[in-house]
Amino acid sequence: MVSFKTITHLPEVKDGKCFFPFHHRDGIFYDCVKFKSKHKWCSLNKTYQGYWKYCSEEDFAKCVFPFWYRHLIYWECTDDGDAFGKTWCSLTQNYNKDKVWKYCD
User: Fold this and answer.
1) How many CA atoms lie within 13 A of 79 on its CB side?
2) Which of 50, 41, 44 is nearest to 8 (CA)?
3) Contact 52/45 with Cβ under 8 angstroms?
4) Helix residue ranges per DSSP H, the chain
5) Which of 8, 75, 80, 83 could form a cystine bridge with 50, CB 3.0-4.6 A?
């Protein structure tokens, strides 16, 4: 017997606040996502329950400083480990454990 969890997708809550990290399907998300939509969105709950909003500039994940990468602690964006020399940062204090990051502007 297969069990399916049904989630009702409600209309956008425009004045809501994004919750990070949030759980959706089998993932944990530390930033806005783009699933079956033209624009990135976020959950308004720790576990997505149908309440969501489109992300604005203020909603996107912020770098976390300091963060631990390999054997060093970084207090700013770094290009260490990036094949293209672009600077990046961790979205959690422990990149080694969580492996969640984004490119810096």
Assistant:
1) 6
2) 50
3) no
4) 95-98
5) 8
One-character DSSP codes across 65-77: SSEEETTEEESS-
Strand partners, 47: 23
Which of 57, 77, 59, 58 shows the shortest CA–CA distance to 67?
Answer: 77
- What pTM, to 2 d.p., does this model score? 0.72
pLDDT along the chain (105 residues), means of 10: 53 88 93 89 94 92 96 97 95 96 91
What sign does the CA torsion over 64, 25, 48, 60 have? positive
Residues 6+ apart with CB under 8 A from 32: 18, 40, 41, 42, 55, 59, 60, 61
Residue type, 85: G
Residues 37-72 as b or e (16 or more Cβ within 10 Å = b): eeeebbbbeeebeebbbebeeebebebbeebbbeee
pLDDT of residue 37: 83
